[in-house]
């Protein structure tokens, strides 16, 4: 046999936030096969259709392999040296007008390098990730409730719960292996009640005993309706509430995440209008089904897990509805035991690890630190060995603001001129593209703007880029991801990237190094050393920017272990890198017990969490009220930012499909997945289609106040929209649904609502 032996090694799947473990088989320098990892806790040997084909994502015919610089209408191949000079020139000429747009697909070291370069080096906080668009409201919901971000529970809750409630969530397609864990319990004869609360039927609905169909923002009324009945029926958990909770409502003016303290009696009074009948009127869900939910939450013998993802996060009241679902769990005492948990999922493989933990949002620093907090800045400067005051105290531009500034001429106040995009595709995934991305087509108007894009394939974003950089992906580089259940997973580089492709961490540090060579002051630490160099025990400087070193398992002085120091600041303790090399992921906080490193499944519960003081039972040790209590919030129901009217009579909702991952730039290049789901479609109810004289396959013209598109009709789609609602997936770069969507966002999380845009439809 002329072939070398197949070499198998571990890695997390490249796609969704479930974080399945795959075994990757490499032969002759190529990924030869992938298999589910039988020893893995997350997926127990299973993968979904995307996971089984993840290896093929590396081998699309049009991989980017050379840096490309735009010259008029053409691109010219250039060297890395020239590319790095071009970026350094742009930054050096106007460092405060430069922004970095990253991703929940960045590895932890990649995000950490960008973070340190921008906030620690350039004193520039214009760093924000695409995760702003998918889970920022979950962050603010956790902060408002517990004073600290990220779920208390984990996937083990799915194995233990009696009732699983999915709030605007379709895990059967978005987190399929996780959902199969639940369905598998049923096939073993275990009793579990599945409830789907949503605006359209999905493949998840097909497995559920109860489907509660609501209108947009109905979730706010439903949560209030449950809380109202729990109190009215005296089925709330008074002991839990008295021991561990406070009550809050928004301040009357200038609301903040701290809110206004209210008494239990005031909370009760605020909920009084939310009778089951009133909730039915606001949400469209029958009053009896609201009573059913309240009865379930009122039953202390049951274990209830709530799951959610984009449905609750992409919401102009995303922070509020996240807090309200936490509140229902706290009020009923369904918290802190295996199977009793409110748990948000993330769409991207490292939205938790790289965005939330590393703090790559425009207002955060690593380890749960905040830009606006002087003490947090000082702590970060200390850990980074930076001169005092280096970190800029003003938060940067969040995603929508960043792209708005970029797409506005400089002389009209658009004060961001250069954006560097890594591992994401904003030309397809930003909302309201005709405002936030497409204006870049007019370079006469936007003559000062310069777009740099690092990616693996040409995309809707590289289409308008001035400089395109070829990136390495997945097992072409070392990496660490953090999944939805606080699990940190490491893998090693297994194959070489094609051509001149380089990983994003190297790209960032190479630009920083070039600025350092040009004596840009910010690239130096207190000792005059380059920002990314570290000293070993003998005081010798290690050139960490050379990519062989920055996470070499044989040296301790590398980027991951440097970042790890931040994790101790808010009880998000990580283990040393070498422990992740051995493990198939560990859920933080990870603490040392003897010579073992112990992960934590359930936080805030004395039985499981090493940071809960003895005898406390439950302790919310990051409480924003400093009394170890969580906050139960009242928020009033409010309508969506845009509702259908006579001119725009349909509510458009957008989302994903099983076969494609986000903007489809990888999965559309996998022939099996592309054949299974070749293009976007308009899912529409049969009565609406008939009224519009549309049949399956006809081309419809869909128009919103912001744009229009032509799209084939699929009556009922995979499951079914109710009359008046239509659905379009966003994976297809030839049919950009975000030409239609709204850029209205939640006031706290700044996360836009992609789920509720009013449209009109006609035959094209
Ligand atoms: Fe990959 Fe997600 Fe599928 Fe698991 S469920 S194989 S992580 S895409």
What share of the residues lie within helices?
A: 25-40%
Q: What is the CATH architecture assignment of the largest domain?
A: 3-Layer(aba) Sandwich
How many helical elements? 24
Bound ions, cofactors and other small molecules, one mention each = iron/sulfur cluster
How much β-strand is present in the residues?
Answer: 15-25%
The major pleated sheet works out as:
7 strands, mixed
CATH fold category name of the largest domain: Rossmann fold
Assembly state of the chains shown: single chain
Q: What structural category characterises the helix and strand content?
A: alpha/beta
Strand order of the largest sheet: 5-4-19-18-17-6-7
Subunit structure: Component of the nitrate reductase NapAB complex composed of NapA and NapB.
Main location: secreted
Protein name: Nitrate reductase
Subcellular location: Secreted
């Amino acid at each position: 046999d002329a072939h070398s032996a197949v070499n198998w090694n571990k890695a997390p799947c490249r796609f969704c936030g479930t974080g399945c473990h795959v075994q990757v088989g490499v032969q002759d320098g190529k990924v030869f096969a992938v298999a589910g990892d039988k020893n893995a806790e997350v997926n127990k040997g299973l993968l979904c259709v995307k996971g089984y084909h993840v290896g093929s994502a590396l081998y699309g015919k049009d991989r980017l392999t050379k840096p490309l610089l735009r010259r008029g209408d053409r691109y010219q191949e250039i060297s890395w040296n020239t590319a790095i000079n071009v970026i350094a020139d742009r930054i050096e000429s106007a460092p405060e007008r430069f922004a970095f747009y990253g991703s929940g697909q960045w590895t932890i070291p990649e995000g950490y390098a960008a973070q340190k370069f921008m906030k620690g080096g350039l004193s520039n906080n214009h760093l924000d990730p695409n995760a702003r668009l998918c889970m920022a409201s979950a962050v603010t919901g956790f902060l408002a409730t517990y004073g600290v971000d990220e779920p208390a529970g984990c996937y083990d809750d799915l194995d233990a719960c009696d009732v699983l409630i999915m709030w605007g969530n379709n895990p059967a397609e978005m987190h399929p292996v996780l959902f199969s864990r639940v369905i598998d319990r049923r096939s073993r004869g275990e009793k579990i009640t599945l409830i789907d609360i949503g605006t359209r039927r999905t493949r998840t609905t097909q497995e559920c005993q109860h489907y509660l169909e609501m209108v947009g923002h109905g979730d706010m009324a439903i949560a209030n309706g449950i809380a109202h009945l729990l109190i009215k029926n005296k089925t709330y958990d008074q002991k839990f509430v008295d021991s561990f909770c406070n009550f809050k409502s928004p301040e009357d003016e200038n609301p903040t995440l701290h809110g206004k303290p209210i008494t239990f009696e005031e909370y009760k009074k605020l909920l009084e209008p939310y009778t089951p009948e009133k909730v039915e009127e606001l949400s469209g869900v029958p009053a009896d089904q609201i009573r059913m939910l309240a009865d379930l939450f009122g039953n202390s013998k049951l274990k209830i897990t709530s799951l959610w993802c984009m449905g609750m996060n992409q919401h102009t009241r995303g922070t509020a509805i996240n807090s309200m679902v936490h509140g229902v769990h706290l009020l009923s005492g369904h918290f802190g035991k295996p199977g009793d948990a409110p748990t948000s999922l993330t769409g991207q493989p490292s939205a938790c690890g790289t965005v939330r933990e590393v703090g790559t949002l425009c207002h955060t620093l690593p380890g749960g630190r905040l830009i606006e907090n002087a003490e947090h800045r000082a702590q970060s400067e200390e850990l980074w060995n930076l001169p005092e005051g280096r970190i800029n105290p003003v938060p940067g531009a969040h995603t929508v603001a960043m792209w708005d500034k970029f797409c506005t001429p400089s002389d009209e106040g658009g004060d961001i001129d250069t954006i560097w995009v890594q591992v994401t595709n904003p030309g397809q995934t930003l909302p309201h593209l005709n405002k936030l991305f497409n204006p870049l087509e007019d370079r006469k108007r936007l003559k000062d703007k310069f777009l740099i894009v690092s990616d693996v394939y040409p995309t809707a974003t590289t289409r308008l880029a001035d400089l395109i950089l070829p990136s390495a992906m997945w097992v072409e580089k070392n990496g660490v991801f953090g999944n939805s259940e606080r699990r940190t997973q490491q893998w090693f580089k297994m194959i070489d990237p094609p051509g001149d492709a380089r990983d994003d961490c190297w790209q960032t540090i190479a630009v920083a190094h070039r600025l350092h060579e040009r004596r840009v002051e910010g690239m130096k630490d207190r000792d005059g050393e380059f920002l990314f160099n570290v000293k070993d025990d003998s005081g010798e400087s290690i050139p960490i920017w050379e990519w062989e070193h920055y996470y070499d398992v044989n040296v301790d002085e590398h980027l991951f272990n440097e970042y790890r120091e931040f994790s101790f600041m808010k009880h998000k303790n990580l283990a040393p890198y070498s422990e992740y090399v051995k493990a198939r992921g560990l859920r933080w906080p990870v603490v040392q017990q003897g010579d073992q490193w112990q992960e934590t499944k359930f936080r805030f519960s004395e039985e499981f969490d090493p940071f809960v003081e003895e005898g406390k039972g439950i302790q919310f040790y990051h409480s924003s009220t400093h009394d170890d209590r969580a906050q139960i919030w009242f928020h009033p129901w409010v309508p969506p930012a845009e509702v259908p009217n006579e001119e725009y009579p349909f509510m458009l909702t957008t989302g994903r499909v099983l076969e494609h991952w986000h903007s489809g730039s990888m999965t559309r290049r996998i022939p099996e997945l592309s054949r299974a789901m070749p293009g976007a479609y308009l899912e529409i109810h049969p009565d609406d289609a008939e009224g519009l004289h549309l049949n399956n396959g006809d081309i419809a013209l869909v128009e919103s106040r912001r744009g229009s598109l032509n799209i084939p009709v699929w009556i009922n789609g995979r499951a079914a929209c109710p009359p008046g609602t239509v659905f379009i997936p966003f994976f297809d770069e030839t049919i950009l649904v975000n030409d239609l969507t709204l850029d209205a966002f939640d006031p706290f999380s700044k996360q836009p609502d992609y789920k509720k845009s009013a449209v009109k439809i006609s035959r094209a």
